[in-house]
Fold:
Amino acid sequence: MTRIILLIVAFAASALATAPREAAAALDPNDEYLIVSGGPSLVSLESYRREAHRHDRWWGNFIRTARIRIEQLQKASNGAVNITWLVYRPGYETRQTEDAQPLISNIESVRDKYKIRLVWFSNADEVIHYLNSGQDRSSVKVSGFEFFGHSNKYCFVFDYSNHILGASRAFLHQSDLKKINRKVFARGAYCKSWGCHSGESFTAEWKRVTGVKMIGAIGKTDYSATWQGTLPFVSPGGRWSS
Structure:
């Protein structure tokens, strides 16, 4: 019988006050834990907003937070967890040009440091395809799924303000979740969206379609302390869905 690792993930102390206690997830090292990072906004577009309303002054909000989770999972499992990291490449290519920095290489350096699988994607269908068929799902189940990126109550938004100010051309809408094969998930799979407002509609549809609970924010999430090694927390007045 394959060895089962009971994994209890601890949050950074600064996030404990606003984040729910992480569930204990039974992780089979032969299964797969998926982390998805959406893309950043462009500073040139966000500069048209009032200062207090601008997004992604730093390009790495959704990369650093994914890195924090990767490190947490590996430490808690003594490196046994099998992580695949899906990253929306077009958003980092455009931001790379704007910042004149090697962002793609920076992301690949995270892959190399933690020795995980990195899968670039360009649209929502590629995310769903990987969920369904990225591995032989008869033997390699999905034991976890976490999303870091922009979102609203109905969508994961991969390129918010990256081509059009305040809008997106690449997103995973809750109406597309029916394309996911619910049999891909392991028993006790842990799912969470770290984006804004997901707990107001998207997570309920995820549970209805897949049969797996997803935690999401009711209200906005705050990535302002990401650079300090802190996971996103819910803004005042919000909460995590139960």
